[in-house]
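User: Sequence recovery, please. Input:
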């Protein structure tokens, strides 16, 4: 799917493997059982993925201006580069990240194995949560 754009409403993606870019101006984005190259952004609304997989060469790029980003991975990645930035909020992760969480933007990152998969999470106002078994 090259691009899905919604002005107001919900974008839901399920059982998706491949490449997609999804944008919502006002509303939430939900995904379940996704992997590949996934770029999702909402201006006002949360972005939530459950049972997501980071695959070699894949990308999870999730952004919101006003809302939370929550990712629940189906498994701990063996090879991944994980980056999270919250300008006005907190970063919580079950995967150990190097945190910069004092004054100013909260920044967290890590590289696991070769870093061949990338997960990049950005929030202006809201929080970031990463869960992994």
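Assistant: Recovered sequence (133 residues):
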């Amino acid at each position: 799917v090259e691009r899905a754009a919604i002005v107001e409403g919900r974008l839901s993606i399920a059982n998706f493997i491949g490449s997609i870019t999804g944008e919502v101006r006002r509303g939430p984005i939900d995904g379940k059982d996704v992997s590949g190259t996934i770029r999702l952004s909402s201006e006002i609304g949360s972005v939530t993925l459950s049972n997501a997989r980071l695959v070699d060469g894949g990308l999870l790029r999730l952004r919101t201006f006003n809302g939370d980003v929550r990712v629940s991975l189906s498994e701990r990645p063996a090879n991944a580069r994980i980056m999270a930035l919250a300008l006005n909020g907190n970063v919580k992760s079950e995967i150990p990240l190097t945190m910069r969480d004092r004054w100013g933007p909260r920044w967290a990152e890590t590289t696991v194995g070769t870093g061949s998969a990338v997960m990049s999470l950005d929030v202006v106002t809201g929080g970031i949560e990463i869960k992994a078994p």
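The longest strand covers residues 11-26.
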